[in-house]
Amino acid sequence: MTQLPPLVDVRDLRKTFSVGGLFSRRHGTIRAVDGVSFDIARGEVLGLVGESGSGKTTVGRTLLRLVEPSGGSIRFDGQDITHLSRRALRPVRRHMQLVFQDPFASLNPRMSVERILAGPLIVHRPELNRAARRALVEDALRLVGLFPAAADRFPHEFSGGQRQRIGIARALMLHPALLVADEPVSALDVSVQAQVVNLLLELRERLELAILFIAHDLAVIGSVADRVAVMYLGRIVELAPTAELFLAPRHPYTEALFSAVPQVEAASRRSRIILSGELPNPLAPPVGCAFRTRCRYALPTCANGVPPLRTVAPAHRVACIRDDITLAPALAAEAT
How many domains does the chain have? Predict the structure, then answer.
């Protein structure tokens, strides 16, 4: 059976930002995304995880061309969109949509839900009249578990979870093939997070959506993603199927992230790995492996060069020279 090409194919993606100005003492270049490569199959959920400042959100926004890439290539559905003009990119945008992190700030409080959801239709489907747009808005609300009458209300009349459902409905108005979900549950109560995650999984199955799910919480990632990419200081340091990553991590940073996941039962709790110091200064990252200054397994040779992302098992890639260490896994229950 011939394998279908991936929906998304990103190669050596780079994004730099210049820092400094006339009155600033600091000048330099921040490599927010530094040579990132991955692909996403149709209907697949790829989790992108890492602590704040690792470059996760920049990857998502650069993939959507909301931020212009500094280098590398982005292919979507077989088409190279890296350097498409704004006009040429417009018909592509309807097939790739963003779910924002903050459901309170991402919805215009002055607009009704109908106007919010009809916005993409007005731009991309101008042939529709108001009655047709209203019907599609009501269909989208039903799809995310809200009543059609919600179309006449305003964002302040809804809870955080309901607002995020409205944000998801807006992203689905044009029937995209790809959703970039940027921390879609981090601003919600824990009791509501599972509902939104389950909704996204249900929509993935029903609509055959591909999802880039960005988060800093490995427990959430473990419940939603088919594969996981772990980012540190602008680079992917480990990429593997979710179950394999949880059972046999190969990068010390991944092990440290697992140790930070809270465990309810005392018998299953593990020792917390405390990383020394904060993230390195992105204006002057460490030579060699960027994680070596915080890694308890670091050797002097770790400073010799940036370790490439290499294959260590089928579909499992890691950027670490320490093949001689065995790292502690997460609980198997977290990967199911």
Answer: 1
